[in-house]
């Protein structure tokens, strides 16, 4: 899954901080239906870090994923020109979990070729991938 060796150029401490913030915000998740609490921490190209968690709904399909809530917050706080340098995803179940397909498309919208995504893999390890690794054929709007 990891095609390049940390192309984001982040230090191990920066990566650990991003993961810690993703885990911290997962505690705020509203997930009474799945009990699967997810957090996402985004490092923007301007150096800011913005976090988000999943927010479920009794009408299940209205659920917002952690990645999407973090991106919405980042746009609200920093404007429409944001670029994602890196995003760390965490869950409180200590299980492997990759961003869902919808989140991959949402991440793609604000990615660069070097955007790196860190997510929980098997046995407590972290996997990393570029957006293109996870979504090689994103939808693009051409009118
Ligand atoms: N979830 C996320 O927050 N991000 C993903 O990429 C996958 C799934 C959430 C949605 C739902 O609240 C719970 O995880 C179980 O699917």
According to CATH, the fold-level topology is Cytidine Deaminase, domain 2
- Any idea how many domains? 1
Query: In percent terms, what proportion of residues is strand?
Result: 15-25%
Give me the strand/helix succession.
HEEHEHEEH
Structural class: alpha+beta
Strand order of the largest sheet: 2-1-3-4-5
Residues in helix, % = 25-40%
Ends apart, CA distance between termini: 33 Å
Second CATH tier, the architecture: 3-Layer(aba) Sandwich
> CATH superfamily, called what?
Cytidine Deaminase, domain 2
How would you sum up the major sheet? 5 strands, mixed
- Shape designation: globular
By DSSP, the count of extended strands is 5
Bound molecules: tetrahydrodeoxyuridine
Q: Tell me, what is the CATH class? A: Alpha Beta
Poorly predicted segments: 1-5
* Rg value: 14 Å
Q: Helical element count?
A: 4
Mean pLDDT: 95
Descriptive account of the structure:
This protein has 143 residues and is α+β, with helices and mostly antiparallel strands. The chain has helices at 12-26, 66-78, 101-109, 131-134; strands at residues 38-44, 49-53, 84-91, 111-120, 126-130. The chain has a single domain (28-132), classed as Cytidine Deaminase, domain 2 (3-Layer(aba) Sandwich), CATH 3.40.140. A five-stranded mixed beta sheet has the order 2-1-3-4-5. The radius of gyration is 14 Å and the shape is globular. The structure holds tetrahydrodeoxyuridine (THU). Tetrahydrodeoxyuridine binds at residues 31, 34, 36, 38, 54, 56, 63, 65-67, 99-100, 103.
Could you outline the blueprint of secondary structure elements for this entry?
Elements: H1 12-26, E1 38-44, E2 49-53, H2 66-78, E3 84-91, H3 101-109, E4 111-120, E5 126-130, H4 131-134
Parallel strand pairs: 3-4
Antiparallel strand pairs: 1-2, 1-3, 4-5
């Amino acid at each position: 899954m990891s095609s390049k060796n940390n192309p984001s150029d982040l230090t191990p401490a920066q990566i650990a901080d991003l993961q810690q913030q993703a885990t911290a915000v997962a505690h705020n998740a509203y997930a009474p239906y799945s009990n699967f609490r997810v957090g996402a921490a985004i490092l923007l190209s301007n150096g800011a870090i913005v976090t988000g968690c999943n927010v479920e709904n009794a009408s299940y399909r209205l659920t917002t994923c952690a990645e999407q809530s973090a991106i919405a917050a980042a746009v609200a706080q920093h404007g429409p020109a944001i670029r994602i340098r890196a995003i760390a995803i965490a869950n409180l179940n200590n299980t492997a979990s990759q961003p869902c397909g919808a989140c991959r498309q949402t991440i793609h919208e604000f990615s660069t070729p070097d955007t790196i995504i860190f997510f929980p893999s098997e046995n407590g390890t972290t996997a990393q991938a570029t957006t293109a690794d996870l979504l090689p054929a994103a939808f693009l709007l051409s009118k």
